[in-house]
Amino acid sequence: xPELDLDPTVFIVDDDNLCLEFNxxxxxxxxxxxxTFSSAQDFLSQCPDNPVGCLISDIVMPGMTxxxxxxxxxxxxxxxxxxxxxxxxxxxxxxxxxxxxxxxFIEKPVxxxxxxGSVKLAITESKKRYLSNYKRRQFEKKLxxxxxxxxxxxxxxxxxxxxxxxxDGLNISVRTVETHKYRIFKKFSVDGLQEIMSxxxxxxxxxxxxx
Length: 211
Description:
Layout: E1 9-13, H1 17-29, E2 34-37, H2 40-46, E3 53-58, H3 66-75, E4 82-86, H4 91-100, E5 104-107, H5 112-144, H6 148-158, H7 163-170, H8 174-188, H9 193-210
Parallel strand pairs: 1-2, 1-3, 3-4, 4-5
């Protein structure tokens, strides 16, 4: 299994340099690696693939706003928990964003303790999302290794058909089915169907929790 990169980075987007530098300083003092951006466009052009950490963004910025950035992050399936920085007058907008899936919001001027607490929770959530997505990608890679016949038998297996039933339905011998099952288990690096079903159930539960 490849080594997982779970080292978090806090990405901060704000067109106000004073706020940007203050929030960066607060987080760096506690050892959080940070990357700062003066615009949403800069962040989107430099965001790495499958990052771990969180994204902190001002809501009111020239060009692309924080709300528009959140929508684009969602569209690109960037899984970073999104924390809004907002003035009092924008609370309604942020509440709408929270309903849409944003992680948290913090009012300006930022309270360092509130910022740190929110970032800690967001990073914990980010690691959970990363591991869930990693498990899904690994499962999909194994599934993609199956031949057409193996994929056909795999589907019948997880639907509950036994070896004899699969053989009869596909008009092949029981021995041929057993050979295909052996190859399927080998490609999934498991000893039997129960381990595969456990993975499927786990991925299904993750989907339900993320809805």
